[in-house]
Amino acid sequence: MHTADRTGEAALHWHAYAKTGDEVYSLPLPYGSHLNGDLWLQMPRDWIAATFDDEDAADRLKEQLALYPPENIAEQGYANATLYTRWQLTRERHQTVWADYRDRHGREVVRLLVPCPRPSAPGALRKTPPECPETRRSVGPLPG
Predict the structure, then answer these.
(1) DSSP three-state, residue 135
(2) What is the pLDDT of residues 6-62, one digit of tens each?
(3) What residue ranges in 3-71 does DSSP mark as E strands?
(4) Helix/strand/coil for 43
(5) Largest Cα span, the chain
(6) Are strands 108-116 and 13-20 parallel, antiparallel or unpaired?
(7) Beta-bridge partner residues of 4
(8) Which of 7, 42, 77, 91 has its CB surrounded by the most CB atoms within 10 Å?
(9) Residues near 49 by beta carbon (within 8 Å), at least 6 away in sequence
(10) Quick check: 111 and 99 in contact, CB under 8 A?
(11) Is 133 part of a structural domain of the chain?
């Protein structure tokens, strides 16, 4: 459980998610929405690879990406994550940081750092942000 700020709200933290290869293709998410942080926060708790309370999450993401080198080092989904993650976690704290690319073996690699709690988004379809998955009981993986 994370510490609370002066308002009693949970302090900002990031949940890391990691899926590779067939795990990506079998995600129970609408097509094209696999980078939507709100949807990942609604997945079972055991999908969380790690949780971070500070910008050191950027180092963890870089370590993860180094384990799955891209087909092309200039691949945008890889390059942006390796170059700008710490900046984004510092300056755009409520934005999901993601990497989505193919590795040298042709596998799809998806890595996300999803900020939590999520702010309400003006004009968004949802009225309230999803709750922190760490406060929910895990119900196990969803059927594929």
Answers:
(1) helix
(2) 545 568 899 999 999 988 888 888 877 888 888 889 888 899 999 999 888 999 999
(3) 13-20, 48-52
(4) coil
(5) 48
(6) antiparallel
(7) 10
(8) 77
(9) 16, 17, 18
(10) yes
(11) no
What is the rounded average pLDDT of the residues 98-113? Answer: 92
Its domain, for residue 34, covers: 16-119
Q: H or E element: which one contains 100?
A: strand 97-102
4 in any annotated domain: no
Angle between helices 76-91 and 57-67 (to 10 degrees): 170
Domains identified in the chain, total number: 1
Q: Name the phi and psi angles at 63, rounded to 5.
A: -60, -45
75 is a domain residue = yes
34: its two tokens: 């696999």
Nearest to 120 by CA among 131, 128, 130: 128
pLDDT at 9: 56
Q: For residue 48, give Cα distances in angstroms to 19, 73, 91.
A: 10, 27, 23
Residue 32 falls within a domain, yes or no?
yes
